[in-house]
Amino acid sequence: MEEQKVKIGLIGLGTVGTGVVKVLKDFANIEIVKIAVKNLNKKRDIENLDESILTNNPFEIVNNPELDIVVEVIGGVDPAYDLLKTAILNGKHIVTANKELLAKKGQELFALANEKNTVILYEAAIAGGIPIIMPIKTTLTGNKIHKIEAILNGTTNYILTKMEREGVSYEEVLKEAQALGYAETDPTGDVEGYDSAYKIATLATIALNQRVDINKIYREGITKISAKDMKFAKELGYKIKLIALAKLTEENKTDVRVHPMLVSVKDCLAAINGVTNSVVLEGFPVGRVMFAGPGAGMFPTASSVLGDILAIAKSIGSNDILPLMKCSHTINAQQTDINETINKYYIAVTASNTPGVIGCIGEICGRHNISLASVLQKGIDEKNTADIVVITEACKESNIKSAIKELKENSNILNINNLIRVME
Amino acid sequence: MEEQKVKIGLIGLGTVGTGVVKVLKDFANIEIVKIAVKNLNKKRDIENLDESILTNNPFEIVNNPELDIVVEVIGGVDPAYDLLKTAILNGKHIVTANKELLAKKGQELFALANEKNTVILYEAAIAGGIPIIMPIKTTLTGNKIHKIEAILNGTTNYILTKMEREGVSYEEVLKEAQALGYAETDPTGDVEGYDSAYKIATLATIALNQRVDINKIYREGITKISAKDMKFAKELGYKIKLIALAKLTEENKTDVRVHPMLVSVKDCLAAINGVTNSVVLEGFPVGRVMFAGPGAGMFPTASSVLGDILAIAKSIGSNDILPLMKCSHTINAQQTDINETINKYYIAVTASNTPGVIGCIGEICGRHNISLASVLQKGIDEKNTADIVVITEACKESNIKSAIKELKENSNILNINNLIRVME
Fold first, then answer.
1. Band of residue B4 on the pLDDT scale cut at 50, 70, 90
2. Residue A30: closest CA among chain B residues belongs to which residue?
3. pTM of this structure
């Protein structure tokens, strides 16, 4: 089939939008007909930009009968939801980088797209430049994937890498990351794990082949990780990473969550440093495969948007456009509560320097069916207290919570400094 | 479009073929109509195998008008070439795991397939279970990829990992790998780099978007790597890996080769151990992305075959089947000669324990425009000789060869033990 000249409308001309315009200039078969921006007068860093195609009314794009594809790179639910809904109703194909919208409104939008025989592609929404959606939907489509372990947020991975390498506090690194533009002024979305949760919601939905509800994803950020935790983890052979996790349990429930984890230095995810993202999938028959690369940034994100645009462009006019890329989920995941999950744990406490305090921790854990895998006691300070760190064997989250409660009540335990899950 | 029942013929029922039959039993829309085997009487490890579908005449498959897809997993050029050519002429789609055939006859077969409007998919031929062909052809299709660094052979990576970890010789590990079935009785295809060369020929062709000639790929195996090289590399912060490399040079030539390289422990490829494969791509706009996973084995390879079969199955009946997956190369690569390439080098020599011998090495290198980046001298032995290892800065291969020639002639240099390229 001869490729046709494909007409696109772009909503958003921030970092990603600018990248998209820059990379599309080399593709003569793609024409950007219209770009919606917030501020028509803002100076743009784009050579030979034809300003007559800018509009501050995005509905001019989604209602434009001339367009084949609407590319949305503004993020957030409002007004992106209304815009894309209108675009789909008007028969447009969608390319979006909007992880929050997909996590919150994906089900509805995909159903609508199926009805209208259009496609929504979103390679850029998850793990930036890394090809992950397309491989899951195509090459791996026959696999039963039962586990995803991923680093999906560059900002938090940058902060944790820096803390680990320089031995400095979370607060210090955050300030520096904000100064460098790696973290936002209000870093909540990143550091509290919202961004990762949006991404794992969609990633788990397509990889595990059942609809994951963003509201049922357990989420915990990195703000409580201390320089001491980093140091203890290192001594025990681990790094600390913000992990987005999704797995099928033995009871065929779906365990999806985002929280910091101790990751063995032998695990490939431990080697993912700085703003890099990575996704590890485990399934049958493929086994364990890993993808890594830039999780954000103007050009890596534009690469994924470009790939989606070209895939649609190549298929426009076909009687069934990109059949493998359509949403095919009919089952709603039965999501586990965090208290039901099984994990190994890192527990860091400050204890009084009393003989038998380690035995006492072991005993309390034992009463809650928790075995200890390793124990680390660090030097006694002037107050005659000691830092004690234990790694447990796998146990139920509700049991560890009961044990922690009892530890808190024990007079030898002066403080519970942290409780972090450990990746197996 | 409603999915049709798709009929396939399978040529080959060895490890990969058996895996394909096992995984396909879960897909009711795919019917294996016929399987060609060498030996009809061999006992097969497949439950409920209908032996009436076996044949020892593979032409019964490629000439069978009922079939939609021919899956070829016998390997080698003869008779696979004749079989697939006939199948394509008969309008069949092809799924193959045959890297040698693609490297040697790919151009002709792809041209024929384009003519007959059929597709040849080959995800399993390169890096086993890792999705790499589909991502390059789809998500990354708009990228200009300028470099590939890859570990594409599990046997050699297993041997090198074992040598590095246990400090043992190549010969010793090879024997063990043969006993475990990780290496073949005649290991030439793996250890001399032929297998990696076949794979990088096709991978470079699609990623760099120009036809790479297998006959012009420089190839060097791992048989000369010694336990001492491993040890010296480690002390200098490197591992030794068999690397398949492809890059565009500044003169817009194509530099494709397979040989051992020292890889910095900080590079993600250094963390690829055992039989795992990995492909790192560098391009614009994506930046640097990495893929890793099982490079061989019954089920990982079957996963890729399965993905290709399902992609075709989903598209059969479409007026333009998998347009992005078709061959679109029209340019023949201008391949560099190894002597023109620019590399850093590891040189290991045995020298007499004479004052100034390191200076003498530096002087000889200097005369050939080669600067030294680091030097390591190891203990003097009873013969009053010393092991000296140098790492050079980047220089031309022809220059290093002249320098080595001169070093050989120098009376202080008793032996040139090895010359290994170093990854930058």
1. low
2. B142
3. 0.95
